[in-house]
């Protein structure tokens, strides 16, 4: 299988000497195309730092992040930015929706910012898959938490990224809604052939993933 | 290419028309000026008091028409344009204008041709890039140098992006084929491993029975064991057949619109007898609206999955307990919870129970019949319905027993 995402001895240290904090230590991760991988860890285990490095949002102290065999940090900032907005999608715990524009505009916003025209049929398909078709003209803050996260998922899927990174996507949702949102996420990435890497502290949610990685004190291990 | 030429010709013709029109207008305006000048000269010639006439000309338009002017000037010997200095200037101006127009037009044509040439070159370059990309895919190198591309220039066209997606797709198909092959291999290994033990047991039982010194009681006992082992072997084989069919794609789930309620009822009916023997109640809690809920499902296999779940619940629960099925409609998924009051599952084994041929080591598990196939098959079937199956850890922490959560999309 093709390894879409790989890390080599990825490390991130903060501070130095006595105060050195090892947020991520020698992480060697292999993620295959089309996989749904959950990275589980308690708060403070370094999981968000790890995800930020995987997505090119944060630079490592040492080690490499290879997406499709290429070290993403060997490129100039501009090229990395283009790469990120075309090939990587992000979903956050806090949804990060723009509150002054409606649901549809939120969903197609990143496509517009990339100077592209949204493929309306494709985006509508996503919208239907996520059950948002009746909410398109609503403003985000008129929606429930679960619905807002669906909008955020739709927005991440709409630009057809290869990899989707989700950072505690259900952190703000109750447990039944969480289950459903994860099921939706899984269904969508399967449907559109994307790879999903999800960070969570909730082991129940991680069960649904194809593979579970556990991060503890900055060390990553596979759960078998 | 023809379209390209046609566009080029259209551009040239349009350019010509515009230039010609502008030139004609300038020439006409010059001619007018020339005529007016001549007219004023003619009036001066006719006038008795030229100084007075100059003031008249400055104040008002001359009322002489072209022919009159020509007649008057003709009388003085100015018959041709060239004869007067005014005419020569007019002709010179015409020449300059025409020359300028021609130069302008030629310049424009040159630009058009240059554009065409450059466009052609660009197109060639681009199709070469695309062709190279396709060639790479054909040669088995599915990745395009996207990053190099992004660094080189923030390009408008997305051919490479698209090619990259195509490459990814081809690669995924290839990997999938590879993986299927690998899975079939492991399946064969797993199955032979699973069959070895019961066959060996059967064999030893049979060996004992061949011994003629056995007492009647002993013989009866071993015959009974043989029968039992045959039965469980039969069940195992049946389960294995299901699994192999599922894995090799011989079972294809055919999702058609159907009433999920009927499927749940059918599954309950199928485990009812077994539950009653153990004095286990099966309760169903569902909203009224659920009876009419229609969703895409394969009734036979989804029923099989639910039977596996219910069968487990009954199997691993002590007599006198209750198995509860709770069904509720969420925003896009139907959520079915199957809760029992049985032995439960240890936290660290949550994800393992859905693995193929996994069985718990606990003695409560080992004493029951089973091949570690049921939950695996259930997961496969439910995933085939684009749904999920998991254990509800939060509930299980508080209460005794297991809670399985099945989610199936209903739209």
From TrEMBL, chain A:
Domain ABC transporter: 5-223
Membrane-spanning ranges: none
Listed Gene3D superfamilies: P-loop containing nucleotide triphosphate hydrolases (3.40.50.300)
Pfam families per UniProt: ABC_tran
Assigned keywords, A-Z: ATP-binding, Nucleotide-binding, Transport
InterPro entries for the chain: AAA+_ATPase, ABC_transporter-like_ATP-bd, ABC_transporter-like_CS, MacB-like_ATP-bd, P-loop_NTPase
Alphabetized GO MF terms: ATP binding
SMART domains associated with the record: AAA
Domain of life: Bacteria
Similarity-based family: Belongs to the ABC transporter superfamily.
Protein name: ABC transporter ATP-binding protein
Organism (species): Drancourtella massiliensis
UniProtKB/TrEMBL annotation, chain B:
Enzyme class: transferase
Molecular function (Gene Ontology), one example: kinase activity
InterPro entries: BphY/WalK/GraS-like, HATPase_C_sf, HATPase_dom, His_kinase_dom, HisK_dim/P_dom, HisK_dim/P_sf, Sig_transdc_His_kin-like_C
Residues that span the membrane, as ranges: 12-31, 95-114
Domain of life: Bacteria
Domain Histidine kinase span(s) in chain numbering: 190-411
Principal location: membrane
Catalytic activity: ATP + protein L-histidine = ADP + protein N-phospho-L-histidine
Subcellular location: Membrane
Alphabetized UniProt keyword annotations: Kinase, Membrane, Phosphoprotein, Transferase, Transmembrane, Transmembrane helix, Two-component regulatory system
Entry-linked Pfam families: HATPase_c, HisKA
EC number: 2.7.13.3
PANTHER family: PHOSPHATE REGULON SENSOR PROTEIN PHOR (PTHR45453)
Protein name: histidine kinase
Organism in which the protein naturally occurs: Drancourtella massiliensis
Phylogenetic classification of the source organism: Bacteria, Bacillati, Bacillota, Clostridia, Eubacteriales
């Amino acid at each position: 299988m093709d390894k879409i995402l790989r890390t080599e001895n990825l490390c991130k240290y903060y501070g130095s000497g006595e105060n050195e904090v090892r947020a991520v230590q020698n992480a060697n991760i292999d993620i295959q195309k089309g996989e749904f991988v959950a990275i589980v860890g308690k708060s403070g285990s370094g999981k968000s730092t790890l995800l930020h490095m995987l997505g090119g949002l944060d630079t490592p102290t040492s080690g490499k992040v290879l997406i499709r065999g290429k070290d993403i940090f060997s490129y100039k900032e501009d090229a990395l930015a283009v790469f990120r907005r075309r090939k990587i999608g992000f979903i956050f715990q806090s949804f990060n929706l723009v509150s002054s524009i409606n649901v549809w505009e939120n969903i197609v916003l990143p496509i517009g910012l990339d100077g592209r025209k949204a493929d309306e049929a494709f985006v509508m398909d996503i919208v239907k898959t996520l059950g948002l078709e009746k909410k398109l003209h609503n403003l985000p803050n008129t929606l429930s938490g679960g619905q807002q996260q669906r909008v955020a998922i739709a927005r991440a899927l709409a630009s057809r990224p290869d990899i989707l990174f989700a950072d505690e996507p259900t952190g703000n949702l109750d447990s039944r809604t969480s289950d459903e949102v994860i099921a939706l996420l899984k269904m969508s990435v399967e449907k559109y052939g994307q790879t999903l890497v999800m960070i969570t502290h909730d082991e129940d949610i991680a069960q649904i993933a194809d593979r579970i990685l556990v991060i503890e004190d900055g060390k990553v291990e596979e759960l078998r | 290419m023809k379209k390209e030429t046609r566009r080029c010709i259209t551009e040239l013709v349009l350019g010509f028309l515009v230039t010609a029109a502008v030139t004609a207008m300038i020439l006409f305006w010059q001619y007018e000026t020339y005529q007016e000048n001549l007219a004023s000269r003619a009036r001066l010639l006719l006038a008795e008091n030229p100084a007075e006439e100059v003031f008249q000309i400055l104040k008002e338009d001359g009322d002489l028409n072209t022919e009159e002017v020509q007649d008057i000037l003709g009388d003085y010997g100015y018959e041709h344009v060239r004869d007067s200095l005014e005419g020569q200037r007019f002709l010179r101006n015409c020449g300059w204008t025409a020359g300028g127009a021609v130069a302008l037009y030629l310049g424009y044509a040159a630009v058009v041709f240059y554009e065409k040439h450059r466009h052609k070159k660009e197109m060639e370059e681009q199709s070469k890039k695309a062709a190279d990309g396709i060639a790479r895919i054909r040669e088995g190198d599915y990745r395009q140098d996207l990053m190099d591309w992004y660094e080189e220039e923030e390009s408008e066209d997305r051919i490479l992006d698209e090619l990259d997606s195509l490459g990814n797709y081809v690669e995924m198909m290839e990997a999938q084929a590879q993986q299927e092959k690998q899975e079939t291999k492991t399946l064969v290994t797993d199955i032979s491993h699973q069959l070895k033990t019961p066959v060996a047991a059967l064999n030893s039982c049979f060996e004992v029975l061949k011994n003629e010194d056995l007492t009647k009681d002993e013989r009866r006992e071993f015959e009974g064991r043989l029968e039992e082992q045959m039965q469980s072997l039969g069940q195992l084989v049946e389960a294995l057949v299901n699994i192999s069919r599922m894995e090799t794609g011989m079972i294809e789930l055919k999702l058609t619109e159907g009433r999920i309620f009927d499927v749940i009822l059918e599954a309950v009916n199928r485990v009812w007898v077994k539950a009653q023997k153990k004095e286990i109640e099966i309760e169903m809690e569902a909203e009224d609206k659920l009876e009419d809920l229609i969703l895409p499902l394969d009734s036979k296999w989804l029923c099989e999955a639910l039977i596996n779940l219910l069968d487990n619940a009954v199997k691993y629960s002590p007599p006198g307990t209750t198995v509860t099925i709770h069904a509720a409609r969420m925003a896009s998924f139907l959520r079915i919870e199957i809760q029992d009051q049985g032995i439960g599952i240890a936290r660290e084994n949550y994800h393992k129970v859905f693995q193929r041929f996994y069985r718990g080591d606990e003695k409560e598990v080992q004493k029951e019949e089973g091949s570690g196939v049921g939950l695996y098959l259930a997961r496969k079937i439910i995933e085939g319905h684009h749904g999920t199956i998991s254990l509800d850890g939060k509930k299980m922490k508080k209460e005794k027993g297991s809670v399985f959560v099945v989610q199936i999309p209903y739209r």
